[in-house]
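Course exercise 7: structure representation. Students receive a sequence record and must write out the corresponding structure in token form. The form below is the worked example handed out in class, using Planctomycete cytochrome C (509 residues). Read each field label carefully; the graders check that inputs and outputs are placed in the correct fields and that the protein name is recorded exactly as given.

STUDENT ID: A-19
EXERCISE PROTEIN: Planctomycete cytochrome C
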Amino acid sequence: MLRILSSLGFVCLTLATVALSEETSRRPASLRPDNAQGGEVTDRQPHTAPQIIRIAQKTRGKKKMEKDKSAEPDDATPTPPAGNKPASAETEGLKFSRDIAPILVGNCIGCHNEKAMAKNGKLDLTTFEKIQKGGAGGAGFVAGMPEESHLYLRLTGDETPRMPRGANRQLSEATIEKVGAWLKAGAVFDGKDPKALLTSYASTPEQLRTAELEKLSVADRDKLVETKGIERWKKGNSKATPQVTPGKNFMLFGVLPKGRVTSTLKVADTQYPKIVGLIAPSGSSEPLEKIGLYVFNERSEFVEFVRSNENREVDKLEQGTASLNVPEPYVAVIDPLGGHDEPAGPARRPSRSKKKSRDDSTEAERTLGGLITDYVAAGVVRRESEKAPVWLSLGLGSFFGSRVDPRSPSTQHLRRAAYQQFDQGWTNRANDALGGEGKPESVRAIGFGIIEALAMEPQTQASFPLFVKGLIENPGKLDDVIKDSLGADRAQFLAGTGEFVATHYGRSR
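STUDENT ANSWER:
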């Protein structure tokens, strides 16, 4: 069974920053380890002198290519130009446009582009011509000689720092050796224009993965999700073996009463098309592969899951997480009831006389379906735009969650928190949140207030979908989106949403 492009993450590829003289940079032999000088490379460059990279004398790349050493040109043999050397039998069919460019598109050009090249080794990898030119360290590769090509050596770690950065972001050996094989075969360019952007002809990792998934049966796709789900679950150090229950759009992993499993999947499957319909109207209302739902009964298990699978720490108020832009996408949450049955009869609201500390979270005072809906919506926003404003993802998540739990203590708490922000000066507080500043709980409350105001007020209901679509497509142009979708300026936008919060949320205090 295929595991498609598991090695391709959304990561960047950085090549060497090497100080070479003008004379040596013109000779292919100067790229060899024996001619490199200087000390060890670190991320901190001294201000007094340029940093020089020392390449390991015995690189792994050389070891891997040693068996074919007799076939390599010696120092006196001119290096064949890229694009002119035919592929060998062992790499026949390997193409730059189909096999190499997608790797660079998926992992490199996010950092190595014209705008960001100044801080990334003066390296732009957006076209074949610029890849060949290289950056501050000289040419990016030597055709026919992967063991002397910065492009390959940075991937293997024979030049430091290894790329992509981060222990959990390295490409697989198979992917790295695919690049090495292409270089060894002559670095042939099979496109029409080496100056054309890679994105104009190279499929993205998502497109390639989609094409492969479409070849599989539904049962095979579900098996991929189940296998990966069990693997991720075990990383949470949970002693319990999860029950695996598939739904229409989701596959739930957890240890819950059967009735709650059924009701939770029903809520998730009902809400998902509504979420996609607003946030990603051009997308399918059914995911190509089911989304894994991991429900943990203990917070410690959830915390360990996030640490192991996302390599980060969990905020003290965080009750869930979502990663929908990865192979086998998932949402993970802490069950508000700790794996128990729903209480008999209507839930009793907490007494207002009972004091709560600032650290107490009312996030747990909601249904599991509402909690999952919240994080699914926030995850869809980030899937559509990684640069989407935090207030938008939190606000839309809370809004959809409140549709499932309209009278829950957590929804009422959100409204009281939004009113508190109004009481402290809505214009300033909201502007801070819109600019990415403020505590997460404050940003969430403000985002919720803005989203609910736009969705519920008669004069903005029709324009609300246009506002969401515009902001996802142009996350850095809020004022333009407000004008184009709502016909207002920011001052009017803040005055209108603030009035809604004051009028509707004041009674929730």
